[in-house]
Every structure is written in C-alpha cells, then in structure tokens.
C-alpha cells in the first residue's frame, strides 16, 4: 500500500521533500468480526486547507483543521470503492466520497460524523465528486446561498475565480442574475472565466498589480458581494471598492497560508464607514445540505448549464507536486489525482 507521509511540520511554502513515500503490505480482507470498511482510492483531492494541516498544531487554526501527524499519511477528500466491508451499511462495490488517506487503500470505521457520502449518480464523471459534486462544490453552494445574501442585479467579485470553488461561485451568481467579475493569476484562466464560465469580466491580478484600478474599472459603481478566496492585498483593495451594506463571504485566504506572519489589512475602518458585513464560514457546517445541493446542481450540470474544469494528474507519486502547485497557481481548475481507474 503506497502512502504519502508528512515528514515534519512545514513552515513557509511546502516543498516536495516535505512529503515522503512508504510502501506497506496490507491484507485486502477485513478480519472476521471487524466493523471496518476497506476502500480502494480512485481519486484524491488536492485542497489548499491541507497546507494548514501541514503546519504545527495551532489553536487558532484548529477550529478549521487539525494538524497532520508527522510520520503518518496525510489525508483529504477522495473518491473510493468499497472492496471489503464488515459494516452493515457498506457493501462491496459501492462508491463513496469522503476523507481518506493519501494512499492506495484506506481502512475506516464509519461514524455519524465521518463525512462519507455514497455516490448514487454515476452518469457523472466520478472525479467530479472531488470537486463540483464534492467538498468544493458544496463550499461554493453554502458560501453563496447561505452567506452572501445575493439578489438579482447585484455586483459580485470572486477571487481565485477559476479554481475548484470559484468557478462554481461565479456560475451560481450568474444563475441568480448578478453581474460577476473574477480575478485569476494567468491569461489562460482569465479566458476560461469569460469564455467557459460566463463571467461578465475578469482580470489577471499578476499583470495588473494596481488592484484598486482594476476593481474600479470592473465595478464603477462598487461591489455588493465579495467571495473571498485569497486575502491579503486583494481584500484590502476590495474593501475600498465595496458598496454601502456590501457583504464579504470569507471562504479562504490562500495568500496567507504559507506566511509565518500574516499580512495586516489596512482598510478595515471602511467596514464601519460602509456598514460592510464580513462573515467566515466552513463547509463542514453545511454538509447536512448535501442532498439539497445535489438536487439543485445536477439538473444544471446535465443540461450543460454549469461547466466544470479539472486539472488531473495521474499517479499517487505525482500528488505532492500537484498539491504544492496550488500555492503557485499551477492548477487550471480543480486539482486532483487519479490514483486508480477502478
Ligand atoms: P483553487 O482551485 O482555487 O486553487 C488555489 C488557487 O489559489 C491557485 O490556483 C491560485 O490561482 C490561487 N492562489 C495561490 N496562491 C495565491 C496567492 N498568494 N495569492 C492569490 N491567489 C493565490 O483552490 P480551491 O478552489 O480549492 O480553494 C479556494 C479557496 O477556498 C482557498 O482559500 C481555500 O482554502 C478555500 N476553501 C475554503 C473552504 C471552507 O470551508 N471555508 C472549503 C474549500 C476551500 P491563481 O492562478 O488565480 O492565483
């Protein structure tokens, strides 16, 4: 069983050498009397919050994610097939998505809080359950509908807009009838936003370092809703461009995850002057709405009214570089690893 192990707690940007491989032999049969389930992992998801887990245990981030243990496999969301089961709720051959180790096979004991979902709709590519139909899709749905209080005709800005979460947020905002702008870190991504996901406008923040000017050009009347994925300078520039009573849904702050000292936000008084509501949220608080989300999103997907772009690397051995690539903007769309085809 090939596995990806955290060598030691990470400081700064993660490097490939922070993750090492080991190979163990495992029994592909559940022992008699055990209530565990043995999974073969097909796809593994690369997600920015995994960097938070790679750092030293920290009370301020523990409310979002506990640190991984050095010397043990890292874990994340994945799509897996049940290959043996001692648990009455799981049968051989079933497909599930949920938290698994970064390894070829994972054993788990189902609990009511273990966040494993059975995959019922197999007409959709299975890999989508790491993205659009999995945790990131649920994040976009919960963040947009529960936190943003969006109304038709409002102006919406999404950062890291072409990524796993952002691409769906923009499309949900368009479905609601909003004017939607996204930022991304390459011209290829900007093209995707405008041509594939239907954003009204998009800009490359790396080529336009005057973020205030870029935002003023795209939002001459100001921003009603900011779906925050990056933090740092972008948040500062956005605050100055918010409308009175604007809302900021804080989904993520990827620009801060690798910094030892977090950057300050200078324009916070604007929150008072413009009566802005800033609210963070964490997707796991909304997993009880997963079937509602599927009922909502599947018809749009099947009718081709929602598009989704993935960036798939093949082989567990290429997982570490794919994960690290997230922090350099290498992924175009949802980053995931194909571990096994079936
Ligand atoms: P993405 O697919 O968007 O991948 C990460 C992207 O972030 C990169 O491709 C890059 O895009 C951008 N990025 C990386 N470093 C920086 C930086 N220093 N400054 C600006 N942008 C940067 O990831 P996800 O869609 O999976 O996640 C997006 C955000 O949502 C993250 O902050 C993540 O932590 C958060 N999240 C929060 C959840 C919650 O429950 N609250 C759940 C899931 C995700 P580009 O080329 O455009 O720079």
Features:
single chain; 342 residues; alpha/beta; Quinone Oxidoreductase, Chain A, domain 1; Rossmann fold; 2 domains; seven-stranded mixed beta sheet; six-stranded parallel beta sheet; 10 helices; 15 strands; globular; binds NADPH dihydro-nicotinamide-adenine-dinucleotide phosphate
List the helices and strands and how they pair.
Blueprint: E1 2-6, E2 19-23, E3 37-45, H1 49-54, H2 59-62, E4 75-85, E5 95-101, E6 105-108, E7 116-118, H3 135-147, E8 155-158, H4 166-175, E9 179-184, H5 187-195, E10 201-204, H6 211-218, E11 223-228, H7 233-241, E12 242-250, H8 269-273, E13 277-280, H9 290-302, E14 310-314, H10 319-325, E15 334-338
Helix pairs in contact: 3-4, 6-7
Bound molecules: NADPH dihydro-nicotinamide-adenine-dinucleotide phosphate.
NADPH dihydro-nicotinamide-adenine-dinucleotide phosphate binds next to helix 3 and strand 15.
Domain Enoyl reductase (ER): 37-337
Pfam families: ADH_N_2 (PF16884), ADH_zinc_N (PF00107)
GO molecular function, one term: 2-alkenal reductase [NAD(P)H] activity
């Amino acid at each position: 069983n090939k596995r990806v192990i955290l060598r030691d707690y990470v400081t700064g940007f993660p490097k490939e050498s922070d993750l090492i491989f080991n190979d163990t032999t495992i029994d592909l049969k559940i022992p008699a009397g055990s209530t565990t389930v043995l999974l073969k992992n097909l796809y593994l998801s690369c997600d920015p919050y995994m960097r938070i887990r790679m750092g030293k245990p920290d009370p301020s981030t523990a409310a979002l994610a506990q640190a991984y243990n050095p010397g043990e496999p890292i874990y994340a969301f994945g799509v897996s097939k049940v290959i043996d089961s001692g648990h009455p709720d799981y049968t051989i051959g079933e497909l599930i998505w949920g938290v698994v180790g970064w390894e070829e096979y994972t054993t788990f004991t189902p609990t009511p809080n273990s966040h494993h979902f059975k995959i019922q709709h197999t007409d959709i590519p299975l890999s989508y359950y790491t993205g659009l139909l999995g945790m990131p899709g649920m994040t976009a749905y919960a963040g947009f509908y529960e936190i943003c209080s969006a109304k038709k005709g409002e102006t919406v800005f999404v950062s890291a807009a072409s990524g796993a979460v952002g691409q769906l947020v923009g499309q949900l905002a368009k479905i609601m009838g909003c004017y939607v702008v996204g930022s991304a870190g390459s011209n290829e991504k900007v093209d995707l936003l405008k041509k594939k996901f239907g954003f009204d406008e998009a800009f490359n923040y790396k080529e336009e370092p005057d973020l205030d000017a870029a935002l003023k050009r795209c939002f001459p009347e100001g921003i009603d809703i900011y779906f925050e994925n990056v933090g740092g300078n972008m948040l500062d520039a956005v605050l100055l461009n918010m409308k009175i009573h604007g809302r900021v849904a804080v989904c993520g702050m990827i620009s801060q995850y690798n910094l030892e000292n977090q950057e300050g936000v200078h324009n916070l008084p604007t929150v008072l002057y413009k009566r802005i509501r800033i609210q963070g949220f964490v997707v796991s608080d909304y997993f009880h709405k997963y079937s509602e989300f599927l009922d909502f999103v599947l018809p749009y997907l099947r009718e081709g009214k929602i598009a989704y772009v993935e960036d798939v690397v093949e082989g567990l051995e290429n997982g570490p570089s794919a994960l690290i690539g997230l922090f350099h903007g290498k992924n175009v769309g949802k980053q995931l690893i194909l571990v096994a085809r079936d």
